[in-house]
């Protein structure tokens, strides 16, 4: 379950900051190539600016590390979602890591594909779509899938850096190609995290971490090597005005990597008036072998403040 509304809001914030930066006359480039991934998977330092980027290139985009890890033909679709006759699906894989002090978002909405100069449609049936909001030190992986003519010779994907400007960068589709890049687990625990049984207050809410464990659904199963987990909370409104809380306010990270939220029938989702309470679960799909699993609750989108709850 992707957090589209949250990402759109983040885009607005990022766009505002970029506009302010442009107005200040800063000469710092928005994008720079800071390295490349060799055939052995090792990173080579190769700082430069480019008009286009290729598989293996490592970019720095205002605190967001973006690695173009692979490209190829996408074949994971059913007969009901097959490409049109004469077309095929292609993918570009990316790794994104936030090294800035504020939250950073990246979404498939920011990308457009062109095959021999003509606009190509994006395919939305991919379960591993690149769409995430990351706090400091967290990372995500994902792919972009497009439908293009089989005989297309020149395929480029444009990434818009801001909706407030026309600044874009191009990624070149290179057919079946792997960079060898391997994402390293980030096994650093949050400096301040709350465990099951803890109670924490914001200026608006009192949040009680009630329980945690494995979550089972009758109608779906996690991917091989993964499991469903839940964290249960009771939230009390200690403010004078109404507040809305939901799963959308929570992010889960397993060894630093963003994990998908899953729907739960008893999930946390409520508008709470002053002095009232709500109780429910937030659920995610995580790797079974992850050593550190943490869930962040965003207390303020504008300041990127979070409360971290430890699952294990």
What does this structure look like?
The N terminus is likely disordered. The chain has one helix and 26 strands. By secondary structure, the protein is mainly β. It is 6% helix and 47% strand. Strands 1, 2, 4, 5, 6, 11 and 14 form a seven-stranded antiparallel beta sheet that branches. The radius of gyration is 21 Å and the shape is globular.
Q: How would a crystallographer describe the biggest sheet?
A: 7 strands, antiparallel
Helical content stands at under 10%
Order of helices and strands: HEEEEEEEEEEEEEEEEEEEEEEEEEE
Strand content: over 45%
Helix count from the secondary structure assignment:
1
Outline? globular
First and last CA, distance? 22 Å
Number of beta strands = 26
Instruction: Please tell me how large the radius of gyration is.
Output: 21 Å
Mean pLDDT: 87
Which features does this protein show?
single chain, 312 residues, mainly beta, five-stranded mixed sheet, 1 helix, 6% helix
Q: Would you spell out the secondary-structure blueprint of this structure?
A:
Elements: H1 4-23, E1 31-37, E2 43-44, E3 52-53, E4 57-61, E5 64-73, E6 87-98, E7 104-107, E8 111-115, E9 118-120, E10 131-134, E11 139-149, E12 155-160, E13 168-172, E14 177-178, E15 193-194, E16 199-201, E17 205-214, E18 226-237, E19 243-246, E20 250-254, E21 257-259, E22 261-262, E23 269-272, E24 277-287, E25 293-300, E26 305-310
Parallel strand pairs: 3-13, 15-26
Antiparallel strand pairs: 1-2, 1-4, 4-5, 5-6, 5-14, 6-11, 7-10, 8-9, 8-12, 12-13, 16-17, 17-18, 18-24, 19-23, 20-21, 20-25, 22-24, 25-26
